[in-house]
């Protein structure tokens, strides 16, 4: 079990609901991120959690990190379990909402060798657990990638409180030459 952080008096830190905390969250929202769904088989059922906190950690060994809110219903069941990170294509906004608490049509699952994953995503990374770290009101789960793949297509992104699209055909710095 991961211990919750404590303040200088030794009390467990709670959520800061001050106006400054809301402003901080708004500032963080200015950073555009991709949208992913973490999928895994829990003790009693299959789970999916929509996240935008996903990053690579290491190429050798291949490690990725997802940040999962402690308030997420499936948070406690993820500890020590294999999982898949499913990167969503621009056309998969409804799938993101489904696993963010606004259920839609039942998604199509693929029975992965490591963890269940979602069908037709832009990319996936199947992971076995590597480490978990306290991250305040989140837990930082690091997984070792044991299988992955990707397809062509535009990516679903989230910025300024809204979904947006990152076109696959973005020009790079060749325009500046």
Taking all residues together, what is the mean pLDDT?
85
Distance between the termini: 52 Å
**Residues in β-strands, percent:** 35-45%
In DSSP terms (H or I, runs of 4 or more residues), the helix count works out at 3
| Helix and strand composition category | mainly beta
Oligomeric status: single chain
Q: Strands of the largest sheet, in order across it?
A: 3-2-6-9-10-5-4
Order of helices and strands: HEEEEEHEHEEEEEE
The rounded Rg comes to 17 Å
Low-confidence parts = 1-14
Largest beta-sheet details: 7 strands, antiparallel
Give the tags:
seven-stranded antiparallel β-sheet, single chain, mainly beta, 41% strand, 177 residues, globular
In words, what does this structure look like?
The chain is mainly beta and 177 residues long. Helices cover 11% and strands 41% of the residues. The strands form 3 sheets. It has a 7-stranded antiparallel sheet. Strands 1-11-12 form a 3-stranded antiparallel sheet, with no helix packed on it. The protein is globular and about 45 Å long. Mean pLDDT is 85; it is low at 1-14.
């Amino acid at each position: 079990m991961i211990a919750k952080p404590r303040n200088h008096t030794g009390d467990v830190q709670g959520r800061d609901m001050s106006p400054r905390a809301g402003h901080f969250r708004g500032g963080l929202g200015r950073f555009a991120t991709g949208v992913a769904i973490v999928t895994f088989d829990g003790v009693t059922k299959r789970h999916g959690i929509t996240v935008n906190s996903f990053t690579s950690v290491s190429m050798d060994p291949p490690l990725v990190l997802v940040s999962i809110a402690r308030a997420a219903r499936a948070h406690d069941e993820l500890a020590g379990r294999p999982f898949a990170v499913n990167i969503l294509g621009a056309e998969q906004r409804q799938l993101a909402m489904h696993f963010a608490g606004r259920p839609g049509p039942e998604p199509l699952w693929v029975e992965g060798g490591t963890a269940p994953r979602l069908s037709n995503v832009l990319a996936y990374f199947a992971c076995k657990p590597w480490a978990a770290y306290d991250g305040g009101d989140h837990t930082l789960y690091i997984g070792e990638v044991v299988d992955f793949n990707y397809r062509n297509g535009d990516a679903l992104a989230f910025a300024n409180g809204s979904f947006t699209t990152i076109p696959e055909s973005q020009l790079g710095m060749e325009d500046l030459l």
